[in-house]
Amino acid sequence: MLTAAAEVFVISGVDTPIRRIAARAGVGTATIYRYFPTRADLVTAVHHHRIEECAEAGPSPPAGADSPFEALRQWADLFDPRYSPRRLIGLLLEGLRSVSEPRS
What we know:
mainly alpha
């Protein structure tokens, strides 16, 4: 579910309907809400999941990296090959900010 959510967030932003994430993950919306009662919970879990993936990959250089730059690029692609980690982190932080601000 977290990988599907991350993919949808990158494509459509963190305000995308939960049903779109559920469809991508192959589950119902109730399953998403069972594990993540709020959007902020889901966004936080996605962010932590991606950080854990990068941390696990960090100790050893990626296979086939011919230079430090290439190794860094491959490591950064763990977030999403179409977007830089900075872009994804920005989207996730934007989503956290939007769901934590009081609505008028």
